[in-house]
Amino acid sequence: xxxxIETIDGSLIQHGRHNDRIYLMxxxxxxxxNLIPKLDRMAxxxxxxxxxxxxxxxxxxxxxxxxxxxxxxxxxFFRGRVDGLFIAKFFSEQRRKAPPRQPVDPPxxxxxxxxxxxxxxxxxxxxxxxxxxxxxxxxxxxxxxxxFPIHRPDYLTRVMGKNAFYxxxxxxxxxxxxxxxxxxxxxxxxxxxxxxxxxxxxGRGFAQVLLGRLMDEARRRDVKTAYTIAxxxxxxxxxxxxxxxxxxxxxxxxxxxxxxxxxxxxxxxxVV
Length: 272
Description:
One of its GO terms (molecular function) is N-acetyltransferase activity. By secondary structure, this protein is α+β, with helices and mostly antiparallel strands. It has helices at about 30-45, 60-65, 95, 130-140, 155-160, 205-220, 235-245, and strands spanning about 5-10, 10-15, 20-25, 50-55, 70-80, 80-90, 125, 165-170, 175-185, 190-195, 225-230, 245-260, 260-270. It has a 7-stranded mixed beta sheet. A 6-stranded mixed beta sheet has the order 1-2-3-4-6-5. The chain is globular.
């Protein structure tokens, strides 16, 4: 069952057994002082082993005093002016224990959003609600599990076109690769997410082409900062972001249910 999304005192959270965590997705105003003990109580009542939060650096003092640790930092995350922190509080020593760090490649040469020389960029198309069934089927094939229910057409239809914009590459009229930009107008930040390629089409540079189109969409919508949260054991996906000018922001320990188990994730960012 997918984790629930709800609000507490105006702050948006996701929580449930699937990711075994609470995710504070958006902190409302000055609510940190009142919200922190409510999140602690919820975690203990439900037996969750982690609280993961995305907050402005200006609210760090309150969370630090409550036992949170900083896992990643993105400069200028909020409207290009205030740094964004990805922070965590653990309720299990097993969850807190960091698995071996996967190697991150050395800094890449000057980036390019176009495909490598000698390759012709395939056309990229915007997805529409009528594509939701095929999109969900692709995600179901690509992931044994995922932090959000992107395999469900009803979920995709609900989020598509609000602040989530999906783009795809088709081969012989069939979706072969897909990705999304989730834009938060309030922070002027954009998460590049939900990348998937059908087996048989990997290694063709489709993810890099899609990322280039997502960056175009971000610029068009006045986004200041783009970021992604990528599996730390997916060297190919991490390389896509590194090669296109993203900087490494940190590592989220045992954070997300993806590919059949809870995994650690790398955070990458880039000024748009």
